[in-house]
C-alpha cells in the first residue's frame, strides 16, 4: 500500500509539471494574440470597407441639400435710369431645398438624376412672400470624348480588393514565419544552455576525478590544469548561454503576446524540439500554379498592367476635345402661396453643351501621351521581370526544402553518434584509457553535432513556412491556406 501511494504521488508530480511549449502552440498564440496579426486583420477590415465604398457609388444616391435659412440685411447698389447709383436697403430670406435621386452610368461616365425643388423668398421691407419650385425634374449630365475613370475602376478595384484579401493570408503566414524564426532562436539558445549546464557538470565531475588520479600518479599536472581551465570556460559559457536564452525568450514572448500569470510572476518557456517533420514531395510546377492562383503579387501583376493602360488612355483623352452635355426636363411654377407651385405647373427644359478644344499646346499633349506610353512599356517589362523572379523564388524554395529534408536526417544520426562517442570517451577517461585532449575533442564534436541537428531543424521549418508563404498552399494537407489556418 505504501508503494502504491508513492507511485500515485510521483504520477501527480509528473502530471503537474508544465508541458513543453510546441511550435504549434507558439504559432497559435502568434496568430491569435500578436500585434502583427491584429494589424493585418485591421488592414483587412479597411480593405473591405474601402471596397464597399467603391461599390456604393454605383448605386442610386438620395440626397437633400439647401440653404435654410438664408437671411440677408444690407445695402445694395441699384443703378438708376439716369445712370446714377443709389444704395437701397434690403432685408430678405431666400431659402431653398433640393431633393435629388441620382444614378451614375458607369459605361459612359454620366449621371442621370430626378429632383424636386422648393424655394421661398421673403421680402421683409415690402412684407411679401413668393414661392418658386420644381415639382418634378429629370436630367442628364454626360461627358463626351472624356476619360471615364468609372470604367477603369470597375476593372481595377475588384483586383485591389482581391489583393487585400490575399494579403491578409500572406501577412498571417508571415507572422507564422517570424514566430518560427523566434521559436528556433530560443530553442537554439535553450539547447546551448543545456549543453553549457551539462558541460559544466561533466567538467566539474571529471576535474574531481582528475584530482584523485593525480594523487595516484595517473595524470599529469598539465592535464589537471587543462581540466581546471575547462571548468572555468564551462562556467563562462553557462553565464553567456543564460543571458542569450533570457533575451531570446523575451523576444518571443513579446512577439506572440505571451502573458505571464495574474500574479505577475514570469513564466519560463520551455520549448519542445519539433523532430516530427512532414516529408513532402513538392512538384515545382504545382507550386508555381498554386502561387499564381493564390498570391496577392500574382493579382497585382494584372492590376499594374491595367493601371498602365488606364494612365495612357487618360493622357490621350484629357489632351483632346472635352465636352459635357447637360439636359433636363421637368415642371416648374411660382406664386405667392405654396400651393401655387403645384397648380398647373409649366414645362421646364434646358440643354447645354460645354466643350474645350486645345488648339496650341506646344507639344505638351504629345509629350504627356508619349510619357504614358513609355510608362506602360516599363510596367510591362517590370511585370515580366517580376514574374520570372516570382517563379525562380518558388523553384529555389522547393529544391531547398527537399535538400533540407535530407539534412535533418543526417544531422540527427550524427547527433546520436556524437552523444554515444562522448559517453564512451568519458568512460575511457575515468578508466585512465583516454587523454584529456581526446576527451576535449569528443566533447566539442558532441556539442557541434547537437547544435547542427537543431540548426538543421530550424532551417527545415523556416523553409517549410517560407514555401507556405510563397504559395499560400499547405503541401502537407494538400489544401489552400485559409485565413483561420494557423499552420503546424
Automatic annotation (TrEMBL):
- List, alphabetically, the GO terms of the cellular component aspect: cell outer membrane; efflux pump complex
Q: Which residues form the signal peptide?
A: none
The record's subcellular locations are:
Cell outer membrane
Task: Read off the Pfam families from this record.
Answer: OEP
The principal localisation class reads: membrane
Family of this protein:
Belongs to the outer membrane factor (OMF) (TC 1.B.17) family.
What is this protein's name? TolC family protein
Q: What is the scientific name of the source organism?
A: Spirosoma pollinicola
Amino acid at each position: 500500500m505504501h508503494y502504491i501511494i508513492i507511485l500515485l504521488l510521483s504520477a501527480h508530480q509528473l502530471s503537474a509539471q508544465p508541458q513543453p511549449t510546441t511550435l504549434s502552440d507558439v504559432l497559435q498564440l502568434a496568430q491569435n494574440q500578436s500585434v502583427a496579426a491584429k494589424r493585418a486583420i485591421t488592414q483587412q477590415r479597411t480593405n473591405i470597407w474601402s471596397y464597399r465604398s467603391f461599390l456604393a457609388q454605383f448605386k442610386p444616391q438620395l440626397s437633400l441639400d439647401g440653404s435654410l435659412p438664408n437671411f440677408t440685411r444690407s445695402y445694395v447698389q441699384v443703378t438708376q435710369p439716369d445712370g446714377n447709383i443709389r444704395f437701397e436697403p434690403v432685408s430678405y430670406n431666400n431659402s431653398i431645398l433640393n431633393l435629388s435621386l441620382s444614378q451614375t452610368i458607369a459605361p459612359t461616365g454620366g449621371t442621370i438624376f430626378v429632383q424636386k425643388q422648393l424655394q421661398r423668398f421673403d421680402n421683409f421691407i415690402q412684407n411679401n412672400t413668393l414661392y418658386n419650385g420644381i415639382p418634378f425634374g429629370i436630367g442628364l449630365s454626360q461627358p463626351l470624348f472624356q476619360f471615364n475613370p468609372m470604367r477603369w475602376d470597375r476593372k481595377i478595384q475588384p483586383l485591389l480588393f482581391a489583393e487585400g484579401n490575399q494579403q491578409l493570408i500572406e501577412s498571417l503566414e508571415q507572422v507564422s514565419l517570424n514566430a518560427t524564426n523566434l521559436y528556433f532562436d530560443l530553442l537554439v539558445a535553450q539547447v546551448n544552455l543545456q549543453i553549457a549546464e551539462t558541460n559544466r557538470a561533466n567538467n566539474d565531475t571529471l576535474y574531481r576525478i582528475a584530482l584523485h588520479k593525480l594523487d595516484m600518479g595517473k595524470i599529469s599536472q598539465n592535464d589537471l590544469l587543462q581540466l581546471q581551465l575547462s571548468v572555468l570556460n564551462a562556467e563562462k559559457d553557462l553565464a553567456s548561454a543564460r543571458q542569450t536564452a533570457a533575451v531570446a525568450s523575451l523576444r518571443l514572448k513579446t512577439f506572440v503576446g505571451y502573458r505571464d500569470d495574474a500574479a505577475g510572476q514570469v513564466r519560463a518557456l520551455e520549448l519542445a524540439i519539433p523532430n516530427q517533420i512532414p516529408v513532402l514531395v513538392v512538384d515545382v510546377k504545382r507550386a508555381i500554379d498554386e502561387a499564381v492562383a493564390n498570391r496577392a503579387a500574382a493579382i497585382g501583376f494584372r492590376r499594374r498592367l491595367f493601371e498602365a493602360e488606364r494612365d495612357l488612355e487618360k493622357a490621350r483623352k484629357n489632351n483632346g476635345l472635352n465636352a459635357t452635355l447637360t439636359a433636363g426636363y421637368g415642371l416648374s411654377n411660382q406664386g405667392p402661396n405654396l400651393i401655387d407651385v403645384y397648380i398647373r405647373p409649366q414645362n421646364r427644359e434646358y440643354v447645354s453643351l460645354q466643350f474645350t478644344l486645345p488648339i496650341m499646346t506646344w507639344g505638351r499633349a504629345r509629350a504627356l501621351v508619349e510619357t504614358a506610353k513609355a510608362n506602360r512599356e516599363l510596367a510591362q517589362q517590370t511585370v515580366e521581370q517580376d514574374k520570372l523572379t516570382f517563379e525562380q523564388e518558388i523553384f529555389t524554395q522547393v529544391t531547398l526544402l527537399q535538400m533540407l529534408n535530407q539534412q535533418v536526417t543526417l544531422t540527427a544520426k550524427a547527433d546520436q553518434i556524437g552523444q554515444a562517442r562522448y559517453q564512451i570517451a568519458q568512460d575511457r577517461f575515468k578508466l585512465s584509457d583516454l587523454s584529456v585532449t581526446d576527451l576535449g575533442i569528443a566533447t566539442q564534436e558532441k556539442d557541434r553535432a547537437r547544435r547542427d541537428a537543431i540548426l538543421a531543424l530550424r532551417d527545415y521549418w523556416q523553409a517549410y513556412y517560407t514555401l507556405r508563404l510563397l504559395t499560400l498552399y499547405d503541401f502537407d494537407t494538400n489544401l489552400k491556406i485559409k485565413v483561420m489556418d494557423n499552420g503546424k
